[in-house]
Amino acid sequence: MLTDGTIKKELEALKSDLIHSIKELVSIPSIIDQNSTKYPFGENIDKALRKTLEICKGLGFRTYYDPEGYYGYAEVGQGDELIGILGHLDVVPPGSLDVWKHDPFDPVIEDGRLYGRGTQDDKGPILACVYAAKALMNLGVTFNKRLRFIFGTDEESLWRDMKKYMEKEEKPTAGFTPDSTFPLIYAEKGLLQIVLEGENETNLLLEGGNAFNSVPDNIVYTGDKQEELKAKLIELGYEYEYELKEKGVKVLGKSAHAQVAEKGINAINRLAIALKSIGITSKAIEFIVGEIQEDPFATKIFGTCEDEDSGKLKFNIGKISLKEKETLSIDIRIPVTIEKDEIVNKISRAANKYGLAYREYDWLKPIYIPKDHFLVRTLLGVYREVTKDMVSEPISSGGATYARAIDNCVAFGAVLPGRTKTEHQPNEHIVLEDMFIALEIYAKAIYKLTCCDSSGAKGR
């Protein structure tokens, strides 16, 4: 008979294998390479996909590698209905290595934490789900529905992987993605990524930032008036930290995910403010200083933009480039009840004042699943059963997860309430004790979703 004790015993036996697999996967620097001609998103992302499928095949799953290299999946069970668990294997760049305690692609366990880029977002959590299913397989349960782990490769960029999957493959009827927090996310803001661009009519050359959805933690200025810039940074206050480099001034910020831009310090914005103060300017700099300053809500442009379900609009300038053209790469998280067109009209008008044109880079519509939906009730019930946390409620998020890719899907873990989210930040890590709690939650959730027949009887 399947009991809490038998599940826990089997999960305990798999813990060391899970950690080994996470380390194997994290050691692959699966950052997007747009210049690759052989692979859609670069050789390292393809290596991560193939390694994941290799792990799954070794665990007894049926596996499939998309011949074009956009996605792969692993499957177990029988039946007409397909339950999906979606995760991604690409990661954002690590940023400045100076602030990492360990090499981001050489995972290390220290003080009960496993460090490395991708440990929390999303290699660790998706492998925890795989091993949770493996525990059920070892216990001989009957999967009355097919369970499919869908592995994406372009989540941190344009979701071209999921677009390919949806064109070519069967769509799950329901599922979850382990790419956020517990207990679960029932609403996700609209995600609008845009580029503001114009001709560079100055002699100023500047490049900084890594990704739309990451608050830039540093930018190096190598142009004129460096001594004046240093003096201005000091004048602006102790928080305006900088470092002297051999050929420039490195303005420092604090990295954070764009969904919580207010928790970061945007180095691009700070450099723009300082440069404008010493008489060095451009269209992009004028826009930043005139419209944004250091406001992660862009209140001057959008006013008070928020709703009860999903909170405030978030605004992040993730990248700047001043070459032949001036470009600002911007990530905007839009409350679920606010219309996209309203936001586009306001940002377009503001940009036009500075000679910058609006161009849409990517758009992901918001999702909202009612709290009384069967999926929300089932997953929340499992979470409460395992953790005994009867206080935490489903929440909304500014994050963009694969829950948007299919109907009847939510983000479910793997970060426990009150724990620090470290994705997209230096020293990204998972707390192993928490991961093992998540492992049990996922095992029981998979059992509830896939091992019940239409009458509600359990499979064994």
TrEMBL record:
<dbReference type="InterPro" id="IPR036264">
    <property type="entry name" value="Bact_exopeptidase_dim_dom"/>
</dbReference>
<dbReference type="InterPro" id="IPR050072">
    <property type="entry name" value="Peptidase_M20A"/>
</dbReference>
<keyword id="KW-0224">Dipeptidase</keyword>
<protein>
    <submittedName>
        <fullName>Putative dipeptidase</fullName>
    </submittedName>
</protein>
<dbReference type="GO" id="GO:0008237">
    <property type="term" value="F:metallopeptidase activity"/>
</dbReference>
<dbReference type="GO" id="GO:0006526">
    <property type="term" value="P:L-arginine biosynthetic process"/>
</dbReference>
<dbReference type="GO" id="GO:0008777">
    <property type="term" value="F:acetylornithine deacetylase activity"/>
</dbReference>
<dbReference type="InterPro" id="IPR002933">
    <property type="entry name" value="Peptidase_M20"/>
</dbReference>
<dbReference type="InterPro" id="IPR010964">
    <property type="entry name" value="M20A_pepV-rel"/>
</dbReference>
<comment type="similarity">
    <text>Belongs to the peptidase M20A family.</text>
</comment>
<keyword id="KW-0482">Metalloprotease</keyword>
<keyword id="KW-0479">Metal-binding</keyword>
<keyword id="KW-0645">Protease</keyword>
<dbReference type="InterPro" id="IPR001261">
    <property type="entry name" value="ArgE/DapE_CS"/>
</dbReference>
<dbReference type="GO" id="GO:0008270">
    <property type="term" value="F:zinc ion binding"/>
</dbReference>
<dbReference type="GO" id="GO:0016805">
    <property type="term" value="F:dipeptidase activity"/>
</dbReference>
<dbReference type="Pfam" id="PF01546">
    <property type="entry name" value="Peptidase_M20"/>
</dbReference>
<keyword id="KW-0862">Zinc</keyword>
<keyword id="KW-0378">Hydrolase</keyword>
<dbReference type="GO" id="GO:0006508">
    <property type="term" value="P:proteolysis"/>
</dbReference>
